[in-house]
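Example record used in the benchmark description.
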Amino acid sequence: QVQLVESGGGLVQPGGSLRLSCTVSGSTLENFVIAWFRQAPGKGRERLSCYWNSDDSSRLYTDSVKGRFTSSRDYNKNMVYLEMKSLKPEDTAVYYCAAERECYGLADQYDYWGQGTQVTVSS
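Model output (structure tokens):
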């Protein structure tokens, strides 16, 4: 059973930065692609990025976060990070990490989810 736990959310002012962590247990990261999603109030879950452990690469899928968000891994801690900078009020959402064998575009294609962490960008 794969378990994911996000952490690192909080309240930040516009222009600020946060680093979200996704800790994976029950399996090694090498077996999965880790995707980051977010869900703003009243909206569906939006895929932001995928991280491939097989070649230590990542890709952003949402135009609004390109150039501001990056995904990386801590090899020693079985963790994947989402580094967010130049945050905007429209980035306010619950952020989730998800795991699957491939990088899928839709939330319902993922079997494994964390509980989510709230990010609020406000002055």
